[in-house]
Amino acid sequence: MRTARLRTVHPVLWAGWAALATGAVLCVIGWYGISGERYAERQLPYLASCTVPGAALIIAGAVLLAHGRNTIAALRVEELYGLLVATEPEDDPARPATAPLAVSGDLLMVPGGTLWHRADCPLVSGKVEAVPVDAKLVASGELGPCPICEPVEETD
What we know:
Elements lengths: L1 H6 L2 H26 L4 H46 L21 E3 L5 E4 L12 E2 L2 H6 L3 E2 L11
Parallel strand pairs: 2-4
Antiparallel strand pairs: 1-2, 1-3
Helix pairs in contact: 2-3
């Protein structure tokens, strides 16, 4: 599948290389014609018919090559992204069930924080400033449950 998409980019690269080569040949012909003429009025036809179009073709070739290579890079990134986000169907029985992140029944909070957590939640685990949850703060709605460990409020 990758090679099929990359083949569509190659004509742009070939056109870029062809434009660069043609532009270089025209610039050499223009330089050779100008160098053989002594007077400026005899040099202008070579400048107008060879050197200027040659320079324009060189610029066009460089743009085509840059565009072709950017397109190849974009296709490769798109392919890698597709591989990254490819998932298996949800109802696959071989897929193991995910275990909860935290299972402790003890509830903690960090002073000045806005969430309450289970004691083994990675956000408060090992923090010495974590204190037991104040039931008044939970009842007033100042503290919300942690979205990571999803603690259940204990009703006493």
